[in-house]
Amino acid sequence: MVEPDVLPDLAKKYAERIAANAPLSVKAAKQAAVMGLDMSLDHGIAFSHLLWGVLRDTEDRKEGFQAFSEKRAPAYKGK
Asked: How is the chain split into domains, by residue range?
């Protein structure tokens, strides 16, 4: 719970943190959160494994690892 006058700044802060991540991963996380509400735990785990398989070889994932090793901010392209 936060005070109403703090909420807009806090929401912006969280939105900026989310937006700084790889777009494909953010989209997949949102999809998993929404779809997971209607799945059993076993199906949810299987779905997360499916998403991992799709995201595992993306350029953004490789960029994230490269940026981390070079101690710089990643430049995600949504690919």
From this structure: 22-79
Write down the pLDDT at residue 51. Answer: 92
> Cα dist. 38→3, 26, 41, 65 in Å?
32, 20, 10, 33
Residues 5-20: tens digit of each pLDDT: 999 999 999 999 999 9
Does residue 63 contact residue 77 with C-beta atoms inside 8 Å? yes
Separation between Cα atoms, residue 54 and residue 39, nearest integer Å? 19
According to CATH, the superfamily of the domain at 22-79 is Lyase 2-enoyl-coa Hydratase, Chain  A, domain 2 (1.10.12.10)
